């Protein structure tokens, strides 16, 4: 970490700020969306209504005594934050805990009929069935016969821009897709990243996934291609142990995505077959570590996860939330060195992310000046810009 880690931790208590908008507007919209998407019974509907009221004006409430992860959440900050306003605790924490409360309300962790049901599944499945997903899979045909290096770079960019496809984000950024309004990269360390993945690689890639559907599909295509090109010998895909941030990928979402790719035509079907083989022969494994849903920065990761990342030739973290957790959810000066704020990470690490929150590091001063002068004023949060950053 830099010698003076003095950047302020983001809170949601400033009206008009991006974090405040997420807590005050997006979270209630998510509760209403979930309530409308399922024929929940009176108990779940009442609990959702209570959560709706609580989000707007209430304080953080403890988990029930019977909650299986109560002790873990107590350690993760609940003991400290219970009784305080959602808006006055770290934004990362209140967002994460909101999703935990939402799952509590719909009985996801209970013993009743809604146990294990993903309240975001309808939206995730709609994504996989969308014509855009089909078009993206069809586009693989055009890569056939291209040089290996070109294919790998194209799939890296597919995975990067796939991060725009985030369902929670689309609740407030109307119509966001990988559309024509996308701008260039604000940082691009991809050459250094490729240097770690030479064609005769024997190492492991850890890919810390973000969203299901239209982000996970290109993530899986990238992993398959890297295995096929023997740039890596194995891959570990880190997913969430339970539904989170609307569209974050769980193991069930991986299965859906793999089946979707395998059912496609043309080159995509070959990817699907290779992907299936890699999963079944153990070259690609899935890990759903509890810390993947923790309301904490990766600097506080537990020892077993640290060992996983330490063993990898490269860890790639996808998406905005993982970036916030990687660099700490702080308002760093944008020119703060990425390598400094990730120095604690136990191995080489790369971030692939479209910009959807105020957190940013590792930019050149002239890049910051050009972005600030650019007029739109939303380059940090609008999802129009992206980055590939790497630290050895
Ligand atoms: O899916 P991603 O790229 O992690 O983005 C989710 C993002 O949603 C937000 O919580 C709210 O926009 C972001 O700040 C967050 O990082």
Report what the structure shows.
This protein has 2 domains: 18-119, Transcription Elongation Factor S-II, Chain A (Up-down Bundle), CATH 1.20.930; 127-391, Uncharacterised protein PF01937, DUF89, domain 3 (Rossmann fold, 3-Layer(aba) Sandwich). Helix content is 45%, strand content 9%. It contains 16 helices and 7 strands. It has helices spanning 18-37, 42-57, 70-81, 91-105, 121-129, 131-138, 148-162, 167-170, 190-195, 216-228, 251-262, 266-281, 303-311, 319-327, 338-341, 365-373; strands at residues 185-188, 204-208, 234-238, 284-287, 314-318, 349-354, 386-391. The chain has a 7-stranded mixed β-sheet, sandwiched between helices. Helix 2 (42-57) packs antiparallel against helix 4 (91-105) and helix 10 (216-228) packs across helix 12. The longest helix is centred in the first third of the chain and has 20 residues, at 18-37. It binds 6-O-phosphono-beta-D-fructofuranose. 6-O-phosphono-beta-D-fructofuranose binds at residues 22, 95, 163, 166, 168-169, 210-211, 245, 319-321, 324, 356-357.
């Amino acid at each position: 970490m830099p010698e003076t880690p003095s950047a302020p931790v983001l809170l949601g208590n400033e009206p008009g700020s991006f974090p405040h908008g997420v807590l005050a507007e997006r979270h209630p919209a998510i509760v209403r969306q979930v309530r409308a998407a399922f024929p929940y019974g009176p108990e779940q509907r009442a609990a959702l209504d209570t959560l709706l009221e609580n989000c707007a004006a209430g304080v953080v409430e403890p988990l029930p005594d019977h909650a299986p992860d109560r002790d873990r959440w107590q350690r993760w900050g609940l003991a400290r934050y219970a009784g305080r306003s959602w808006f006055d605790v770290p934004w990362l924490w209140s967002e994460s805990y909101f999703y935990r409360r939402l799952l509590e309300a719909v009985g996801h962790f209970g013993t009743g009929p809604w146990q294990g049901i993903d309240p975001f599944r309808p939206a995730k499945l709609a994504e996989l069935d969308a014509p855009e997903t089909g078009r993206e899979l069809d586009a693989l045909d055009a890569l056939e016969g291209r040089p290996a290096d070109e294919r790998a770079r194209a799939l890296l960019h597919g995975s990067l821009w796939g991060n725009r496809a985030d369902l929670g984000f689309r609740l407030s950024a109307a119509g966001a897709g990988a559309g024509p309004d996308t701008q260039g990269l604000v940082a691009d360390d991809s050459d250094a990243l490729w240097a770690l993945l030479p064609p005769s690689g024997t190492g492991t890639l850890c890919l810390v996934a973000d969203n299901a559907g239209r982000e996970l599909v290109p993530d899986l295509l990238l992993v398959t291609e890297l295995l096929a090109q023997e740039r890596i010998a194995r891959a570990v895909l880190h997913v969430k142990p339970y539904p989170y941030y609307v569209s974050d990928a769980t193991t069930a979402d991986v299965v859906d995505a793999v089946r979707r790719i395998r059912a496609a035509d043309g080159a995509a079907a070959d990817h699907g077959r290779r992907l299936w083989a890699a999963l079944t022969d153990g070259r690609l494994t899935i890990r759903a570590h509890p810390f993947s849903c923790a309301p904490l920065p990766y600097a506080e990761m537990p020892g077993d996860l640290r060992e996983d990342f330490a063993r990898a030739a490269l860890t790639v973290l996808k998406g905005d939330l993982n970036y916030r957790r990687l660099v700490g959810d702080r308002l760093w000066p944008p020119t703060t060195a990425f390598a400094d704020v990730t120095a604690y990470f136990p191995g080489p690490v790369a971030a692939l992310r479209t910009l959807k929150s105020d957190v940013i590091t590792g930019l050149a001063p002239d890049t910051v000046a050009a972005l600030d002068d650019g007029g739109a004023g939303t380059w940090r949060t609008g999802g129009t810009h992206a980055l590939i950053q790497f630290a050895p």
